[in-house]
Write a structure and sequence with these properties.
- The structure is a single chain.
- By secondary structure, the protein is mainly alpha-helical.
- It has a domain of 153 residues.
- A 3-stranded antiparallel sheet has the order 1-2-3.
- The longest helix has 41 residues.
- The chain is flat.
Length: 221
């Protein structure tokens, strides 16, 4: 669709109608991405199961089948990274347009309000009422806890981050099958220990669990 006609595809009843259409489109595209990622991980789970079952196979050619399974899983995961990124950029385009529309009078601030709460832990409902992050040890806005403080959004983590993790998994499998790294079985426990340590450090610093939202009057904040 040409950019000059983007507002002509909806009834000419003002920004509110455009906002309603875009909000429905956002939910639709987000649901499509989640469905595709569900199918992606279903295939990945079947491939991992086939790899594990083939590991104990004594049939001739069993090792070659393992390499083929690993290659297919790796290729699929790598292709899903740019595919997921394309979906994320499309969602960001719709959200940016929604935030612009919500800056106009008479448009509900659903997207811009949610973005404000995720980043700062505070969003205004009206001049005297706000939704804020409840005060506690874990009272941090969602985008200030792990893993969101890396700048990831939920759609970015699901659409791009998880295929990256799958790609790393199949790369490690390839390294293990080919024997490219000596004593690889000793490296894996160290990686596991590093991940667990990072989890515990974030938990101790209060950067793992986001604060609970609550209603507050302006005088309370």
């Amino acid at each position: 669709m040409d950019q000059s006609t983007i507002n002509e595809a909806v009834p000419l009843d003002g920004p509110l109608i455009i906002w309603q259409h875009l909000l429905g489109r956002l939910y639709h595209e987000d649901d499509l991405m989640n469905q595709r990622m569900y199918h992606f991980w279903t295939v990945q789970a079947f491939l991992a199961a086939a790899l594990a079952l083939g590991n104990g196979s004594a049939r001739s050619g069993g090792r070659e089948i393992q390499f083929l399974v690993d290659l297919f899983g790796l290729t699929l995961a790598m292709f899903y990274i740019p595919l997921g990124l394309a979906y994320v950029r499309g969602l960001q385009c719709i959200k940016t347009y929604l935030i612009y529309l919500e800056s106009l009078p008479g448009i509900p601030r659903i997207n811009s309000g949610a973005a404000s709460f995720l980043m700062s832990g505070k969003v205004e409902i009206d001049k005297s009422t706000q939704i804020v992050t409840a005060k506690s040890w874990f009272a941090r806005p969602i985008y200030q806890v792990f893993p969101w403080y890396f700048g990831l959004s939920a759609s970015m983590f699901i659409g791009v981050g998880t295929p990256v993790l799958a790609t790393l998994f199949w790369l490690f499998v390839m390294i293990a099958l080919r024997g490219w790294v000596r004593d690889f079985d000793r490296i894996v426990p160290w990686i596991s220990a590093l991940l667990i340590s990072a989890f515990l450090i974030n938990l101790a610093l209060g950067r793992l669990i986001p604060g609970r939202p609550r209603i507050a009057k302006s005088a309370d904040t």
